Amino acid sequence: MARHVVCSADDLPVGSMKAFKAGETRVVVYHLKNGFYATQGQCTHTFGPLARGEIVKGCQVQCPLHHARFDIATGAVMRWANFPPGIQLLNAVRGEKALRTFKVEVRNGNVEVMA
Fold first, then answer.
1. How far is CA 114 from CA 22, 41, 98, in A?
2. What share of the chain is helix, strand, coil (3-state, %, to 5)?
């Protein structure tokens, strides 16, 4: 696993997130009250771009397409896709799957993702 500088820590204020490439891997980096985190860039439901979603409850990311929610620190599914009504039919085929997470360190003012 390689270490990739994705941005300056000052580039991401607390409560924000942004998509980056860490080597060949697309990730979303989040700056929460308790530090920086990174997950894969796409939702595991239908591969929606998580960086276009929103941070909810201070520690979850919600996909913009079908509103699946994931714990940012662990990648665990907090709520599976439920929007729009009827999407549950697709959920029978697309079972719940956690997000992949990546270790993040801040060194010399830079956010580094191990991917």
1. 8, 14, 18
2. 10, 45, 45
User: Is 27:102 a contact under the CB 8 Å cutoff?
Assistant: yes
Closest CA to 4 of 93, 107, 86: 107
Q: Report pTM.
A: 0.91
Sheet order of strands, 54-56 included = 54-56, 60-62, 69-71, 77-79
> What domains does the chain contain, in order, with CATH numbers?
3-114 (2.102.10.10)
pLDDT in tens, 42-98: 999 888 999 999 999 999 999 999 899 999 999 999 998 877 776 776 667 677 899
